6-carboxy-5,6,7,8-tetrahydropterin synthase (Pseudothermotoga hypogea), 129 residues
Amino acid sequence: MFFLSKEFVFDAAHRLDKYKGKCENLHGHTYRLRVTLVGLPDEEGMIMDFVELKRLVHEQVISLLDHNYLNQIIPQPTAENIARWVWNKLEPLLKNERRKLYEVTVWETADSFVTYRGSNDERCAESEG
Ligand SMILES: Nc1nc2c(c(=O)[nH]1)N=C([C@H](O)[C@H](O)COP(=O)(O)OP(=O)(O)OP(=O)(O)O)CN2
Ligand SMILES: [Zn+2]
């Protein structure tokens, strides 16, 4: 099995509702996003063409989030909720008979990040973003 990843960067503003601290105030981050697929190469030797993955993630995610106010798009936009939102956007578009989305990682700062691997891993009832 192969794992294929591509990373992206976007800048956005957010605030965390009911957060007791500085993050309740409007502020921004340069977010980093990593999308990872798992699968087997096709006859061209690719799980997925990096060029096509870049196009898809830009179209479905980056173009919506970059230089935007995340609270207008994702309720309570923590790194967790952003990662799940990205997963929900991309998962149906990436799967075929040889590959599927494996994980989504969102860095809020250089040393703070969350990885999401889909609803099978979730144990809590949550509101979908
Ligand atoms: N589990 C989570 N915890 C926090 C999140 C989150 O998304 N998931 N988000 C925040 C805030 O957005 C905050 O901006 C992040 O704060 P922090 O990690 O402290 O980042 P800083 O760069 O501001 O850290 P400094 O050490 O002050 O430079 C909070 N928690
Ligand atoms: Zn923040």
